[in-house]
């Protein structure tokens, strides 16, 4: 069971449970974004904004898939920002 303000993560770093009772947000390191691919693998985007080493072997189709996923993510972030701006 996580302590107040903590969450449980898988070995891959994915959140498994959230402490919904916590009202305190603790600043930590930047989060890595994982984009799941159709082939069952995932592309890792590091906090600096550069693509991780696992994108070097992508096919043209794979690159197109990553671009589409990034566009979807960008659209979702823009929507959230617009909601916050009110």
Number of helices: 1
Q: How far apart, in Å, are the first and last alpha carbons?
A: 37 Å
* Structural shape: globular
Q: What class do helices, strands and sheet pairing give?
A: alpha+beta
Layout of helices and strands, plus pairs?
Elements: E1 8-9, E2 15-17, E3 33-36, E4 42-45, H1 60-85
Antiparallel strand pairs: 1-2, 3-4
Label this structure with key terms.
86 residues; alpha+beta; 4 strands
Describe the structure.
With 86 residues, the chain is an alpha+beta fold. The chain has one domain (8-85). Helices cover 30% and strands 15% of the residues. The chain is built from 1 helix and 4 strands, in the order ββββα. It starts with 7 loop residues before the first strand and ends with a helix. The model has no long low-confidence stretch (mean pLDDT 75).
Précis, in short:
With 86 residues, the chain is α+β, with helices and mostly antiparallel strands. 30% of the residues lie in helices and 15% in strands.
